[in-house]
Amino acid sequence: MPLADARARVPELLIFDHDGDADTRLLAKLAEACERYTPMIALHLPQSLVLDISGCVHLFGDEHMLVQDIEDRFDGAGLSVQWALAGTVDAALALARFGLKEGAQAQLPVAALDMNDKTHRSLERAGLYHIGDLADRPRAPLAARFGAELVLKLERLLGQEDRPVNPKRKSAAIITERRFAEPMGHIDSALLCLHELFIEAAQMLEDRKQGARKIRMQLFRCDGHVAKLAIETGAPTRDDKLFRRLLNERIDTLNDPLDPGFGYDLVRLSIAAAESLDAVQTDIDGGRDAASDEAALLSQLSIRLGRQDVQRFQPANSYIPEHGLHARAALDYKDAFIWDQPESGAPPTRPLFLFDPPQHIKVMAEVPDGPPRRFIWKRVTHDVTRAEGPERIASTWWRKRQGHLPGKAGLTRDYYRVEDSEGRRYWLFRYGLYGTEKAQPDWYIHGSFV
Amino acid sequence: MNISDSIHRKNKGKAASLSLSSASCLDENIKKGGAILLGAQRFDHALRQGLPKAALHEVQAALKADTPCASAFCLLLAERCRLSGQKGSNPILWVDEKQSQRCRNLLYPPGLVELGIDPNRIIYAQAATVIAALKTAADAVRSNAVVSVILALSGKNPRGLDLTATRRLSLFARESGVTVFLLRDQLSSLSTAAYSRWQISSAPSRPLEANAPGHPVFDVKLLRHRRGIEGLSSRLEWNRDSRIFEEYAPDIGAVPAVSVFGTDYQEQRRRA
Question: Model's pTM, two decimal places?
Fold first, then answer.
């Protein structure tokens, strides 16, 4: 119906633009809240959620009590829900869409097939109004007339063929949870509960000879909000004291603190990633194990400062200087790397600090392709007393289009180690070969030596 | 002034003598932790057998441009500390403030190798604020998982750095035996609880063939020491091959390298 007609009929009509993104966000939020029923949840845009409840029903009594619980909770959040139970995803989606209940697939209109309008119309013209009319017909003529897709969709609706649920989140190997009869209004008791859950999970891990690397926690508030916490550890662990410490660290560094609101009624802890961990014999005098201390410290710092801000260095397989800055998160670090050792007796040829990006400087040189004589950096003039170079570093011409042709390879850098009259040592480079690559090459400072 | 002295002077009596004994016990702790030797013998002798490991040391760059030099001094001391101790496999933690993405001045691992420092043994942490950096350093010192912590702070008066914070760090260091270096990029007379305070500036190197810049040379000056050592200053050259500091003597030429405990590391490397 056009807007003008609608307004003519209902003058006090309120009008809003359709905001598809907001709908999707709301649906994603609802999906999170529904994780209390099952870990297998898939979004079916634009307006449906698919819950795979196999094996989860006994927690609520039976299927209908589970659905009743869902209805009540959505009702509480001010949303009305149309639902259906079925053996396959497509059947359930179609039933819910047309407001029918389980086993009523035959009464669905052909539009439930979700083909294009033309197909629907031609089916109706042939006198086939309901899925039930199609169900007993031989498939081959249908496929010949309307295509194989229709047959596939029909079989899915009838539950003769299944489509796997593609869940929003990979389900964890170990899940422990606690449900409360009354919502719990205190953070401390929620944390205590998480601690207990971890001890339970640790026992399961011990049976499998594993330790947790990633721990995911969800606090379900009774009004549908879900608070999510995650902890990543530097080494597999089953140590509940360490867990408690990391959890406290996590809580302290949250951007928006936990708000229990009306209280949490379900607390869940899942081990999202585990690695093998055998029981370790501790020292007889209760000595501390340095490796596990280090892993604990790294986990703690990574939680506090952020995963990417606690790093360890990794050698780069490249001669381009700035690639050498490569560092990776300390949590991903496994074994020690082999570094190229310098020649004995030689002075350092690489700076201790590198500027990223290199900084532009003004240089005076005796000859245009010779070492610098004097340079101005940040408005300070440095007189060069000693210099060594050039160390010529070509660009990665093989990465460039037609880089093998002269003049297309990119600019070559000529590096000089220089020392100024104050005794400070710097790493400078001329960007481009004088004359052949560039008429007036620019100079940059790339690092400082000790 | 010694802390135990100040306590003693303030309140005389039983309580004072008690705290005195506990403080002297902590001093024992410092001694027991061992010491970092620089390698230059005159220097180590003047320091009465090196710098104690279980303590906080403050290293200040004479000028902002000397910061790389001061950083290197900290790193090299930390590396010597690591090589000489039993906890040789433990890492060194470097904590600094996060720099803006537009213009960064970053620790360069190939440069570490060139100084004889093993980059595998460095953890590089960037904190958002000075307070977070101090907290990170304190946790690392307490955890006993690292051999040394270098806390690099920039600016004249970093917000949060004060006597209390440094006192806390130095107490943790006493307990755990982890060496803490407080690295400042300029001279500052801010009172801290550091055991020693150093001023570092770069110095002209011994030229190599064809007037090429040579090995790292530092002008090292002791500004303050808990045990009252004064007026110690020298020009030191870092010898990467034996991993020691040597007294710089330009006139004599090459000084024979006497390794104090360099061989141990070479064997470690061979094994690795």
Answer: 0.76
